[in-house]
Please model this.
Amino acid sequence: MITHLHGDHFGGLVNEHNEAAFPNANVYVNAVERAYWVDDVKNEAVIDALNLYDGRVKLFNFGDEVLTGVKAIDASGHTPGHTAFEVCNEVLIVGDIMHFPEIQLPLPEISVKYDVDPDQARESRKKILDYAAEKNFTIAGMHITPPGIYKIKKAGLNKTGYEKF
Ligand SMILES: [Zn+2]
Model:
């Protein structure tokens, strides 16, 4: 399951011989995300990687249950089909809604240059962080400081944003 098609998130699909690194795997990709990188941007690295999994690329939409117990949540903005995965009502894999949580947890309005649509990314970040705090989910993210997994809550009095705990 791919949160989005930036190189540091799908690159592991291809091995050093330019073959499928996981020859028996299905690859689950948001339909909007695939269309953006393949049809609109025509990113060759994305096209080549997905072609290695021809017939095993499974498209999904926001709101779908991608696999049993795994729901695709709209986290778009960082990329058009950027997806968070809610796993078994306990864990939220947040992808790249944050790159610098030490800054973006207390100040979630700050976007980064990697966000395709910074305004939409800001709204998604706030929405996803609100959702995680409200549901008491553990969040996991690829650019979250080690251990890369924790819970968050709304920040206390006289503070903004969120705190991890
Ligand atoms: Zn990214």
The longest strand covers residues 149-154. Residues 7-164 form a domain with the Metallo-beta-lactamase; Chain A fold (CATH 3.60.15.10).
